[in-house]
């Protein structure tokens, strides 16, 4: 199908895809099958290439628009929104740490061929070990979870060179004997994210494929550390999309099915006339709209630094952006979980039926929002506010 030519067209395309995904999201979640068809839908729509260069058929969109695409897809299906969001981060990873030649090669490869990224990068597990064998490096190890799994065409690996503290990222083809996915992701929510365990055995990469290395030496930039704020900003939009989907779905149910309470003494005819229902939706909507406004502003800020010259980013600016992203995460997780829970009070007892499927929103948001402890995000924001201290770059900040 023809590709959109501007940001609004891409957002409309994303909504078309979301409308398709929404039809059977609950049924697909329960079936818990690898989402090959869903990823092919993203490819056919062109959504996997929106960050790629226009010269190779990509959309070359700014990040603040790309995050809105993640949000739109997540409204319909949080699992597929997560897959797409992680794909965008890993597609940009070569810009975060790669050389100019590596950036050009990887972006042409994935954009021209509509390839989908996954990542075997889980910092809570031990690092993969990397052996230096002259012209090549060899990855070995295991990760207890990795997003993208069997539906990814390309997999990002990360490990540490044996006998050093030097971390190396590399992008490799997923379909090879040395990468074995267990297919064991069976969690409460985000069930279609292919986030199960993976074993890496003797995966060879030419030194030329070690991201950012020249003559086996890495030249660090502050920009390299934007991977975490960028990914956490994606999380914010996954969570916001899930919360928006929950409120939209509950509202539609209430308009059509929720009955008034017959013992309130006011003889109301429909649920939409109930004071507590109107007040409840009003309360939840005001929180959600405020969260969306905050996240939109944060996305503009991080988009600016992601698209600026890499050498221009200072540690201070990077830290300020990380704090803002953390603030958005605090708000949307707390408000999103409230929304995903309270919608049951506003829709009524019959809405708890499994066929209605309102539980998918709480399950998805609750599962992924455990990615790192929220009190530490509040702590980062508090230190910035009280003592003007920015967080040091870590795997989670």
Q: Over the alpha carbons, how many angstroms does the gyration radius reach?
A: 22 Å
Largest sheet data: 7 strands, mixed
Number of strands: 9
Class by alpha and beta content: alpha+beta
CATH fold naming of the largest domain: Butyryl-CoA Dehydrogenase, subunit A, domain 3
User: Uncertain regions: pLDDT < 50 for 5+ in a row?
Assistant: none
The general outline is: globular
Strand content: 5-15%
Protein name: Monooxygenase
GO molecular function, one term: monooxygenase activity
Domain Acyl-CoA dehydrogenase/oxidase N-terminal: 21-103
Domain Acyl-CoA dehydrogenase C-terminal: 238-371
Briefly say what this structure is.
The chain is α+β, with helices and mostly antiparallel strands and 397 residues long. It has helices at 7-23, 25-31, 36-44, 63-76, 78-97, 100-113, 227-256, 275-307, 315-347, 359-368, 374-387, and strands at residues 117-120, 128-132, 136-143, 154-161, 167-173, 179-181, 198-206, 213-214, 217-218.
Characterise this structure.
Keywords: Monooxygenase, Oxidoreductase. InterPro entries: Acyl-CoA_DH_C, Acyl-CoA_Oxase/DH_mid-dom_sf, AcylCo_DH-like_C, AcylCoA_DH/ox_N, AcylCoA_DH/ox_N_sf, AcylCoA_DH/oxidase_NM_dom_sf. One of its GO terms (molecular function) is monooxygenase activity. Strand 8 and strand 9 form a beta hairpin. The longest helix has 33 residues, at 275-307. The chain folds into three domains: 7-116, Butyryl-Coa Dehydrogenase, subunit A, domain 1; 119-218, Beta Barrel (Butyryl-CoA Dehydrogenase, subunit A, domain 2), CATH 2.40.110.10; 222-387, Butyryl-CoA Dehydrogenase, subunit A, domain 3. The protein is globular, with a radius of gyration of 22 Å. The protein has 397 residues and is α+β, with helices and mostly antiparallel strands. 51% of the residues lie in helices and 12% in strands. The mean pLDDT is 96. The strands form two sheets. Strands 1, 2, 3, 4, 5, 6 and 7 form a seven-stranded mixed β-sheet that branches. Helix 4 (63-76) runs parallel beside helix 7 (227-256) and helix 4 (63-76) packs antiparallel against helix 8 (275-307). It contains eleven helices and nine strands.
């Amino acid at each position: 199908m023809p590709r959109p030519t501007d940001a609004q067209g891409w957002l409309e395309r994303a909504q078309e895809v979301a409308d398709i995904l929404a039809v059977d999201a609950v049924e697909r979640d329960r079936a818990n099958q690898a989402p090959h068809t869903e990823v092919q839908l993203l490819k056919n729509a062109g959504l996997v290439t929106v960050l790629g260069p226009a010269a190779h058929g990509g959309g070359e969109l700014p990040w603040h628009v790309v995050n809105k695409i993640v949000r739109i897809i997540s409204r319909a299906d949080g699992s597929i929104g997560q897959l797409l969001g992680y794909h965008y981060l890993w597609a940009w990873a070569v810009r975060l740490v790669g050389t100019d030649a590596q950036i050009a090669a990887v972006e042409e490869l994935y954009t021209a061929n509509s390839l989908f990224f996954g990542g075997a990068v889980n910092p809570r597990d031990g690092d993969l070990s990397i052996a230096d064998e002259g012209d090549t490096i060899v990855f070995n190890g295991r990760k207890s979870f990795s997003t993208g799994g069997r539906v990814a065409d390309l997999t990002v690996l990360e490990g540490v060179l044996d006998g050093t503290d030097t971390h190396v990222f590399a992008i490799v083809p997923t379909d090879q004997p040395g990468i074995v996915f267990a297919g064991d992701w069976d969690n409460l929510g985000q069930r279609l994210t292919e986030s199960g365990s993976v074993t890496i055995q003797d995966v060879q990469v030419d030194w030329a494929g070690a991201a950012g290395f020249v003559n086996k030496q890495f030249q660090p930039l502050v920009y390299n550390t934007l991977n975490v704020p960028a990914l956490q900003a994606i999380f914010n939009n996954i969570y916001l999309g899930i919360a928006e989907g929950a409120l939209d779905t509950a509202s539609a149910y209430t308009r059509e099915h929720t009955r008034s309470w017959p013992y309130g003494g006011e003889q109301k005819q429909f649920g939409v006339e109930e004071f507590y229902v109107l007040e409840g939706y009003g309360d939840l909507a005001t929180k959600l709209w405020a969260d969306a406004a905050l996240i939109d502003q944060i996305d503009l800020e991080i988009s600016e630094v992601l698209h600026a010259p890499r050498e221009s980013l200072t540690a201070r600016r990077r830290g300020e952006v990380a704090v803002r992203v953390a603030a958005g995460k605090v708000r949307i997780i707390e408000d999103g979980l409230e929304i995903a829970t309270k919608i049951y009070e506003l829709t009524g007892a019959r809405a708890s039926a499994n066929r209605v499927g309102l539980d998918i929103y709480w399950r998805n948001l609750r599962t992924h929002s455990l990615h790192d402890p929220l009190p530490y995000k509040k702590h980062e924001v508090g230190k910035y506010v009280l003592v003007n201290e920015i967080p040091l770059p870590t795997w989670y900040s």
